[in-house]
Amino acid sequence: MEPELFVEILNRVRDSIWRQDTFYRRALDPGLKLALTLRYLASGDSYHSLMYSFRVPVCTISVFVPEVCEAIVLAYKDEVIACPATPAEWRPIAEEFSRRWNFHHTLGALDGKHIAIKCPKHAGSNYYNYKQFHSIILMALVDAQYKFLWVDVGAMGSAGDANVFNHSELRACIDDETIGFPQPDPLPGDDADLPYFLVGDDTFALRTWMMKPYSKRHLADPERIFNYRLSRARRIVENGFGILSHRFQCLLTTLQQVPSTVESIVLTCVCLHNLIRIRHPIEGPQCADQERDDQQMVDGAWRDDVRQLLPIRGPKRGRESEEAKIQRDYLKAYYWSPRGGVPWQMDMI
Question: Which residues have C-beta within 8 Å of that of residue 261, sequence separation ≥ 6?
């Protein structure tokens, strides 16, 4: 983090984390509190380790780290995690997916990850996931530049992708049509109107607003081309999570706080991730997967981390709509045709 950005954050949260000196002791400086909290988020070091580095007791650290996180979220969340709500706000995202990843009409890539936590008291198996550890779920919608457009944090680890999404505010806005997606219009070089959509993996049900890969075996070349083209767009959310956890290593540890505090910590990491992307959009491009001139992928730095955020698994929810199947088949034909094809795609299957 650049010193200027640290000073900006400190100025935004200073009043919230400042405490009055007392007759018995002097209050900790807000700058020290912020520096220690950022070190914790970035390194994942235990409070005991931070105690020796900063000469601050564990009992004090455990009190002000959640306070600083809440202050950062309060100061920045509405500014840096702003889900579009109108067609004019959604269209630039679709244009960026078209320009960078050659997948048109895409409004974001959706996925979820497990954040490991200590088993909460009296929680039973509610937070126990398929990988046999306790966790909460971070579900996110990511744009073409690895920024988080929308996040849902705090669902119990025993839930699956589709279950969390189906009970989310984002899904409710899609269902009641207040999400503000642009009206259907033609793909480049085409004349038939097609809806705008999100992209996800096979866990999600196929909808006109949710495209996912063909999953059957022995796919024909047009279906494999479609899957390749979609995977380039869907890779964004995987890299978004990877960059987030690479920058904030606390997410790769087992967080010892209660779930409500863990939610605040995760939201703080997302806010800071987006803030850094906004202030320094070209900083550390090597962290994300890169394409060479021959379109082969070069792994990003985050893939070298020993631990990774684990994906969510669960049964598919809901029947796939016939209209969505027709739409996916139309996209398949479009990307197979000269209108929508790219020169290198046959080399990728």
Answer: 66, 69
Confidence label for 334 from pLDDT (cuts 50, 70 and 90): very high
Give me the mean pLDDT over the 287-307 stretch.
Answer: 65
Where would I find the H helices in the chain? 3-17, 30-43, 47-54, 58-80, 87-101, 161-166, 169-175, 221-247, 259-279, 322-336
Give the total residue count for the chain.
349
Nearest to 75 by CA among 138, 32, 29, 11: 11
Asked if pLDDT for residue 39 goes beyond 90, the answer is yes
Indicate the domain borders of the chain: 3-80, 87-348
Structure token digits, residue 38 = 């950022």
pLDDT band of 17, cuts 50, 70, 90: confident
Share of the chain above pLDDT 70, in %: 89
Q: State the DSSP H helix or E strand holding residue 194, giving kind and residue range, or none if neither.
A: strand 193-194
Burial of residue 321 (number of CB atoms within 10 Å: 0-12, 13-18, 19+) = middle
Handedness of CA 12, 16, 17, 21 (dihedral sign): positive
